[in-house]
Amino acid sequence: MHDRGVLMETVLGINIGTTSTEGCLVNVQSGNVVSQCSVGYSPGFQNLDGVKNGAEQRSQVWTDAAIRSANEMVLAGNNLDAEVRAVAISSMIGGLNIPVDRDFEPLRAVPIWLDRRAHREAKAASDTLDSEHLGRVTGNVDISPSLGFTKLLWYMANDTERFRRTRALLTPNGMIVKMLTGEHVTDIVSLGAFGGVMDRSRMRVDDELLFQIAQIGSQLAGDRLELSPDLFGTIVGSDKVVGPVTAAGAGLSGLPEGIPVVASGLDASVALLASGGREPGDNILMMGTSWSLGVLSNWTPNVPVSGMLHTPHVVGGDTMTFSMTGGPYTGGTAGFWMPEMVVRSSFAKLEGEAKMVPPGAGGITFLPYLMGDRTPLGQENVTGAFLGLRADHNRAHMFTAVLEGGVMLHEECMEDAARMGIELKTTRVVDSAYRSALWRSIIADVTGRPIMYHPDFPGISYGDAMLAALGSGMVSDDRIFKWVPPARTIEPTEDDNRKAAYGRARERYRRFRDILCDQ
Questions:
Q1: Cα–Cα distance between 40 and 144 in angstroms, integer?
Q2: Separation between Cα atoms, residue 197 and residue 116, nearest integer Å
Q3: In this structure, how many other beta carbons lie within 10 angstroms of the beta carbon of residue 49?
């Protein structure tokens, strides 16, 4: 055992996801993972307040998991003579975000990214806001119930008394930053993903748009309500230090008092960083509970592109844009839904059975719109469906159809990105949720494009550790990308029979999709 007086320098990354929170402790000198942990919980698919199309989560689920992860990683480091020198925390899109009162106590369960209750509010915003002005200021022109600001309108109109008591809207990662540092901040990536309020050029809340949203909310509520930029706190870059861990934060988390806390941001953008993406055209398919195709491009002022959600990137956000096609689309949700909610089996067991099913799932088509679809369909009320079922089919056929249906939706999002003039290099696939070799091979075979996969990918929280090292100044920009483990390329099939089978499956999928969407 080495001398206890010489401590290994490490950085800690924490990612708060829909079904788990993960921690990753990384050696600053080598970039090697020292220790990891994962705290699982039920996703926020449940509708806690009974509202139609609702999907909510209690914020305490996230905060408990993040604090537990921090304590576990500090303990693991202590056992290995390692000391945490910086920390960064990311999260999925927060939906409404966490409404808190003046004491920063949560006021209600959070309508998450999957929640689609704000139809009336999205329509009111679309009818009222000048889309040209919205696009020019925020870089986004689309308005949907998926966005945070339309959920805020719902909150104003339908939970008015609690809205009046709301003093801040904290992102899930922002809540942990507040607990550690005492500072109320929103990172630029999460603010951009909230929609409707961010001045992309100045990286701040736009007062005029916020005033217009307040007027819409007042009209919907039938009462005069106000919105303040203070709801979002200080706006910070994702690679910037927010402040040091306070004595109170150290007591909660086990982290050393005084170490820097870096803001981090949206998990999909962090995942691209963790996979080594850094140039225009670099893109990632994040295969989590949500699937998200994200691509980097140079930021072009005043040129909004419809059909995508555009935010600054977690690194170099002043010049680099991270754009998500599909936003929160639910190919991945289906991968969780069938094993856990339908057949009560494990993903791994069903995958093993599905490997015996030929391409095309025996003629079954699955439309994976379990929580509506933001893009490419733009229909929040569309539902999922199995079509083509016969008596000789079994659950392996159905699960294969689920896997193929998710990929068919992903392929459409790729085609949308190409139609928008966005260059897509080889897609980097991050599959930390399912680690499914079968699903990855289907992606390559259906799209006819090679994909890059990191077999030893340590998870999104590794990207947070990278940001902690970057933001604290412990590691330079050039050196940080040398941390990233090598990727493996998965080539698409050359088998003509498989290609033909997927071609027939694609034709069925698109035909049934069109029929369903016409209903």
A1: 29
A2: 19
A3: 13
| Start and end residues for every CATH 3.30.420.40 domain found in the chain | 8-262, 277-453+487-519
Query: Among 110-114, 223-227, 243-247, 469-473, where is mean pLDDT lowest?
Result: 110-114
Domain 277-453+487-519: CATH class, spelled out: alpha beta
DSSP assignment letter at 301: T
pLDDT at residue 156, rounded to an integer: 99
The answer on pLDDT for 336 being more than 80 is: no
- Evaluate whether 327 touches 362 at the Cβ level (below 8 Å): no
Q: Looking at residue 423, what is its pLDDT? A: 82
pLDDT tens-digit series, residues 255-285: 999 999 999 999 999 999 999 999 999 999 9
The token pair that represents 101 in the structure block = 């009162």
Which CATH number among 3.30.420.40, 2.40.160.40, 3.30.230.10, 1.10.540.10 corresponds to the domain 8-262? Answer: 3.30.420.40
Whether omega before 304 lies within 30 degrees of 0, making that bond cis, reads no
pLDDT of residue 268: 92
Q: What are phi and psi of 144, to 5 degrees?
A: -150, 165
**Alpha helices (H) along 80-206:** 119-128, 131-138, 148-158, 160-164, 172-181, 188-194
Buried residues in 142-171 as b, exposed as e (16+ CB within 10 A): bbbbbbbbbbbbbbbbbbbeebeebbbbbb
Torsion of CA 376, 377, 382, 384, to 10 degrees: -40
